[in-house]
Here is the input.
Amino acid sequence: MIGRRENVSGAHFAFTDRWGGVSAAPYEELNLGGAVGDDAIAVTTNRELAAKSLGLEPGRVVWMNQVHGADVAVVDGPWGSGSAVDSGPGSAADSGSDSCSVSGDVPSVDAIVTTRRGLALAVLTADCVPVLLADPVAGVVAAAHAGRPGMIAGVVPAAVRAMTGLGADPARIVARTGPAVCGRCYEVPEAMRAEVATVEPAAYAETSWGTPSVDVCAGVHAQLERLGVRDREQSPVCTLESSDHFSYRRDRATGRLAGYVWLD
Here is the structure.
């Protein structure tokens, strides 16, 4: 259920795999995405199971309506409580076919930030890069959804800027990126690779079979490095290659993984 978990000075990072839930095919088992066609009761049950396995209250997890943009929201509690405000506009265009939305009641953002201890932030993915950030000293955490459009739009730098506005120091920020499609597998047209590389050269890649590709995770880590974030780790898991993880590019109709970050 929880493929990876880490505690760094009271900041917790966790990434799920696809097992240990109740969803039926093609979403088996631990689908955490609420807008992919799965049964709503199954998704709710899965979210409860995942939260409880992490020692979290399911109602104290903040999800996003992800649209492959760069908008960030600072939150003090779950949506609907009147405790969330947008901070730092970005591009919300190009929702893409790998939508990881949760519901129409949740604002459309691709990064969330909080200083509230015990409040978990969640990001949904099925090939895109889940980015978890924390400055345990300042008491600030963030979760970001970085697909190809979001990486180009600058969602990760926007999240870091929102964190620094709340007292975080990039030199103290701990960054963890979870399972995502790798550059060896993310084949794209040559024109798209060139467009992406114009914005982020580090994302320029080639598939294992010698065709143009994009390495979104490499692009994200290059952005973090330029921002001064030194403590960075990348998951070795490629979602397209791993049968233990959901992959939109591999299966199309499939579930969503989640990354969680929170402070003690």
